[in-house]
């Protein structure tokens, strides 16, 4: 972060009590992009939370830039993306992490405290989770990991992949609801795994394309990069290459709307007709066949 640049603020804070008046709530896991951290999904995570979900964002040891363990031990990410086999291995690790997290949430829901240092849990959290309604989504590699985790763990009832390639055997599987949202240049012609996944899966599948977007559009970089461009010395061309030309507020609003409509439909039973087909209210979203 350049000097004198204000850090973004969020509505969240540590130790916030759980509001159980309308619970228990569906639980959604979030997996970040490759070599990224979960904080870059804050905008989408907070929106789901504000609409009645408990979202657990998962940083990946040895892959996220840094992960702090009990006692202050800091593990810095060393993972470097490689060939397809390495990408599949990464999916496997993340899927195992998702399984571990769900096991720990089950312990928490039954009154246990999974915190390694036995720190007190936020008030009201135990009893607020509905683990019969679990979803998972992620950006880039995190989206592919969501598909892999669904294949491996039947507790995950619905998943979403934000602009990630579906490496390995998951490209030929899928028996539960899944949302694929891609940038304007990420098509079935460029990425045959999309068509394979849609054709082979037996569960409800939706493939959406967000016009004038780029890969980083599906993270908080969509809003941060244009704001930080002058301080970072980025040219308009470089900004466009990172996040596209769609107005940031529009891009974020579109992503939130469809992600929420998907989980509302398949985790809450609140059918959203936004998933039925193109909407004149959101012209930047195209439904792919």
> What overall geometry do the principal axes of the alpha carbons give?
globular
Q: Using the coordinates shown, work out and report the CATH topology.
A: Rossmann fold
Biggest beta-sheet profile: 7 strands, mixed
Mean pLDDT across every amino acid position: 91
Total number of beta strands? 9
Question: Radius of gyration in whole Å, from Cα?
Answer: 19 Å
Write the element-wise H/E pattern from the N-terminal end onward: EHEEEHEHEEHEHHHE
- The fraction of residues assigned to DSSP E strands is 15-25%
Total domain units: 1
Q: Could you give me the name of the CATH homologous superfamily? A: Alpha/Beta hydrolase fold, catalytic domain
Q: Helix/strand-derived class? A: alpha/beta
- Order of strands side by side in the largest beta sheet? 2-1-5-6-7-8-9
Helix content: 25-40%
- CATH class reads Alpha Beta
């Amino acid at each position: 972060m350049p000097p004198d640049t204000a850090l973004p603020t969020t509505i969240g804070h540590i130790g916030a009590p759980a509001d159980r008046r309308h619970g228990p709530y569906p639980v959604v896991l979030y997996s970040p992009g490759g070599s990224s951290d979960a904080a870059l999904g804050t905008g989408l995570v907070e929106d789901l939370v504000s609409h009645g979900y408990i979202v657990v964002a998962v940083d990946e040891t040895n892959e996220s830039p840094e992960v702090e363990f009990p006692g202050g031990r800091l593990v810095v990410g060393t993972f470097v993306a490689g060939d397809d086999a390495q990408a599949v291995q990464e999916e496997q690790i993340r899927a195992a992490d998702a399984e571990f997290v769900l096991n720990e949430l089950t312990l928490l829901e039954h009154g246990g405290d999974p915190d390694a240092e036995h720190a007190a849990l936020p008030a009201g959290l135990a009893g607020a989770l509905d683990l019969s309604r679990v979803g998972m989504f992620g950006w880039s590699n995190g989206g592919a990991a969501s598909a892999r985790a669904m294949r491996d763990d039947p507790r995950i009832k619905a998943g979403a992949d934000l602009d990630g390639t579906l490496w390995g055997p998951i490209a030929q599987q899928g028996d539960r609801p899944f949302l694929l949202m891609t940038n304007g240049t990420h098509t079935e012609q460029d990425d045959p795994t999309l068509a394979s996944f849609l054709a082979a899966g037996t569960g409800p599948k939706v493939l959406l394309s967000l016009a004038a977007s780029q890969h980083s559009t599906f993270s908080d970089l969509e809003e941060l990069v244009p704001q930080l461009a002058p301080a970072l010395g980025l040219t308009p061309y470089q900004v466009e290459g990172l996040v596209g030309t769609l107005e940031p507020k529009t891009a974020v609003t579109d992503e939130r709307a469809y992600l929420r409509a998907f989980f509302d439909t398949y985790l809450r039973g609140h059918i959203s007709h936004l998933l039925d087909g193109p909407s004149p209210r959101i012209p930047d979203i195209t439904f792919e066949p």
